Amino acid sequence: DDASTDGTAEVAKQHGARVLSVAHRQIAATRNAGAAEAEGDWLVFVDADTQLTPAVLRGAIAALEGGAVGGGARVEFEGTAPLVPRVLAAVFMPIYFGLRLAAGCFVFATRDAFHQAGGFDPRLYASEEVSLSTELKKLGRFVIVRDRVITSGRKLRTHTVREMLQPLWAMLRSGRQTFAKRDGLDLWYGERREDTPAG
């Protein structure tokens, strides 16, 4: 629970989760804190607005039992979204997953491989899943399971195409240092916008 202001921590506790409270306001550092507390041999990182299907979980387990060091899954966005973001996502995602990169909303790894890879890079405020995917691929087989997790389409609905592409343009100009500070990363750290599904 990274300094959340809603009832997420209480809901988690009510459902039997052990809640670790931190105040990093940084995705990578918070995930690393959770990994440090976890006791199992396999680690699974799932965004709060992402749903795992039984098929995805079976695929991840099969990959790990088959010797993979880690992986991710393809993504399906829930709800409706404007046409242009949907088209961009449809074009971008096959390329992204074709490079065997895990989406940030769902990443899994063996504990040993995760620590050998250095965990999520704590210097990054975004794209930490790309960095981890790259490091894990150096250690062994990295699997993108065929089935899809279902994740929120809220950002597609509440942000303009320009806002969604701005971090990518900045990275192309300045490299990964773009993600070494929170400034300019409102897509992940900005105030939550009211979600009005597109018609």
Question: How would you summarize the topology of this molecule?
Answer:
Blueprint: H1 8-14, H2 27-37, E1 42-46, E2 50-51, H3 54-65, E3 70-77, H4 83-98, E4 106-110, H5 111-116, H6 128-137, E5 142-151, H7 154-158, H8 161-174, H9 186-189
Parallel strand pairs: 3-5
Antiparallel strand pairs: 1-4, 2-5, 3-4
Radius of gyration: 17 Å
Order of SSEs: HHEEHEHEHHEHHH
Q: Mean pLDDT across all residues, rounded?
A: 92
Percent helix, as a range, is 40-55%
| Coarse structural class | alpha+beta
Instruction: State the assembly state of the protein chains.
Output: single chain
Number of helices: 9
Low-confidence stretches: none
Strand segment tally: 5
User: What's the story with the biggest beta sheet?
Assistant: 5 strands, mixed
Give structural notes.
By secondary structure, the chain is α+β, with helices and mostly antiparallel strands. It is built from nine helices and five strands; from the N terminus they run ααββαβαβααβααα. A five-stranded mixed β-sheet has the order 1-4-3-5-2. The protein starts with 7 loop residues before the first helix and ends in a 10-residue tail after the last helix. 28% of the residues are buried. The model has no long low-confidence stretch (mean pLDDT 92).
Give a short overview.
The chain is α+β, with helices and mostly antiparallel strands and 199 residues long.
List keywords for this structure.
9 helices, 15% strand, 199 residues, 5-stranded mixed beta sheet, single chain, alpha+beta
